[in-house]
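Inverse folding, one chain.
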């Protein structure tokens, strides 16, 4: 992964097949300190991305040479961090909303109100700044993880001991890279270990369950950024790559002596009780006990804490969903005991 750019420029690319609109917008934005490139031919836009390096693109939706939808796809493939604002007629609003799901940030109705456009550009630049700032942070964390992982393998090979601070650093880096809720990995590790302990698991076996839950997504370090952070739905081929993170995590941890049993939990944390999970399609007791407990804890945690990709629900609603999936996704013999433990330990405000 190359070091991300600073994102400190203010380059605006305007593409509309009506030269009058292009001229008006360019004059307005140039007068407010932006570096603006205006094009009336949409075919030219793709070839100017590399030389102009826009931070924000303002695109008309309907253009004769190349549509705004096609340009959006080209722009996001070139650099997913470039923000896109659409200009559209009233009767195209539903189409524009669909394009926002594919990565556009905003759309404005024609006739264009320039002050509205200025506000939208300000939001787009701030959104881009935050993405790049977060990307820079993740970049440095990833370098730290790689350095600490190398040191971990050299210093602890064959030892039955773990430096919890190092594993916590790994899990924190994973949470940031995956844009997860802060503290997700540590939280589900403690809850999974607590639930397993309540069911009689102890000593080394309990430690391995906690480590496996803590590092469950470590394989995502090997997933390309373009897939892990893609705002739109993954293609079939991209989803196949994403699903390999469980296998990658297993390969990584199985080479560290004191994490071999934890590696099995990482390998199995997306398996389902009825055999419809991945990567191996394991079912029932063939799925490691710790992975079966973790599946319940992780599902509840994902539902009761706010994430970019879901609607937050109460613990009661999450528990009802887990019960509904008992026997298919979850081990029915573990559901009630695990939910009872979670009920005693999730924050009261989330219930």
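Residues assigned per position:
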């Amino acid at each position: 992964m190359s070091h991300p750019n600073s994102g400190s420029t203010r380059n605006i690319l305007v593409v509309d097949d009506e030269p009058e609109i292009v001229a008006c917008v360019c004059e307005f934005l140039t007068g407010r300190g932006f570096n603006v490139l205006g094009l009336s031919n949409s075919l030219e836009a793709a070839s100017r991305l590399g030389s102009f390096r826009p931070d924000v693109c303002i695109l008309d939706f309907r253009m004769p040479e190349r549509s705004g939808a096609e340009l959006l796809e080209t722009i996001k493939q070139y650099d997913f961090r470039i923000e896109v604002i659409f200009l559209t007629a009233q009767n195209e609003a539903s189409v524009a909303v669909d394009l926002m799901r594919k990565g556009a940030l905003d759309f404005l109705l024609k006739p264009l109100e320039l002050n509205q456009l200025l506000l939208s550009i300000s939001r787009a630049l701030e959104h881009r700044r935050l993405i790049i700032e977060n990307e820079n942070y993740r970049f440095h964390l990833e370098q730290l993880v790689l350095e600490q992982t190398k040191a971990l393998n050299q210093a602890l090979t064959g030892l039955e001991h773990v430096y919890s601070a190092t594993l916590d650093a790994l899990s924190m880096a994973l949470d940031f890279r995956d844009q997860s809720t802060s503290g997700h990995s540590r939280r589900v590790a403690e809850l999974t270990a607590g639930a397993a302990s309540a069911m009689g698991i102890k000593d080394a076996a309990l430690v391995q369950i906690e480590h496996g839950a803590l590092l469950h997504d470590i394989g995502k370090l090997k997933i390309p950024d373009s897939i892990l952070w893609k705002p739109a739905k993954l293609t079939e081929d991209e989803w196949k790559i994403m699903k390999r993170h469980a296998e990658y995590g297993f390969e990584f941890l199985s080479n560290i002596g004191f994490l071999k049993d934890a590696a099995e939990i990482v390998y199995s944390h997306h398996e389902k009780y009825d055999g419809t999970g991945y990567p191996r399609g394991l079912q029932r007791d063939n799925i490691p006990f710790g992975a079966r407990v973790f599946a319940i804890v992780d599902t509840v945690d994902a539902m009761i804490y706010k994430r970019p990709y879901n609607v937050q629900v109460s613990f009661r609603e999450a528990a009802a969903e887990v019960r509904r999936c008992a026997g298919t996704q979850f081990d029915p013999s573990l559901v009630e005991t695990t939910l009872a433990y979670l009920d005693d330990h999730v924050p009261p405000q989330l219930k």
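The beta strands are 11-15, 35-39, 56-60, 83-88, 106-109. The first helix runs from residue 19 to 30.
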